Amino acid sequence: QKHRTTIVDCLKDPDVSIRQRALELIYHLVNGDNVESMTAELLNYLVLCPREHRSDICNRILRVVEKYSPNDRWRVDTLITMLTIAGRESARAVQSASIIYISRSSEDLRAYATHKLLKAIRDD
């Protein structure tokens, strides 16, 4: 954990093998205490990474969110942000899991998610 900043900085390295190793380390460093900041780093990397890596990163983000999500609203926000960034490059399983999670949420959270998704579609 004390080298987290260095590892996150490695996501910006021009060498793809260094970025891949940093991504693997970040994924293993995530825990309940740092899930929000580490997931934000994964989402930032998702914006910049090569398109062919987006599906894998979405799978990793989904697993982190399912395991460590601090609350339902944060989970919905994170999943929608991920889908907005990755779009069709996220795996169908990730898209389905996100939709299933939202559909099983409370009525208020479903309404919130619907508005966020509608805004994402309008902004696209």
Can you describe this structure?
With 124 residues, this protein is mainly α. 75% of the residues lie in helices and 0% in strands. The chain is built from 7 helices and no strands. Helix 3 packs antiparallel against helix 4, helix 4 runs antiparallel to helix 5 and helix 5 runs antiparallel to helix 6. The protein is globular. The model has no long low-confidence stretch (mean pLDDT 92).
Task: Offer a few descriptive terms.
124 residues; globular; mainly alpha; 7 helices
Summarize the structure.
With 124 residues, the chain is mainly α. The chain has helices at 4-9, 16-29, 35-48, 54-68, 72-86, 92-103, 107-123. Helix 4 (54-68) packs antiparallel against helix 5.
Secondary structure topology:
Blueprint: H1 4-9, H2 16-29, H3 35-48, H4 54-68, H5 72-86, H6 92-103, H7 107-123
Helix pairs in contact: 3-4, 3-5, 4-5, 5-6, 5-7
Largest sheet: none
Distance between the termini: 37 Å
Q: Indicate the radius of gyration in whole angstroms.
A: 15 Å
Supply the number of helical segments. Answer: 7
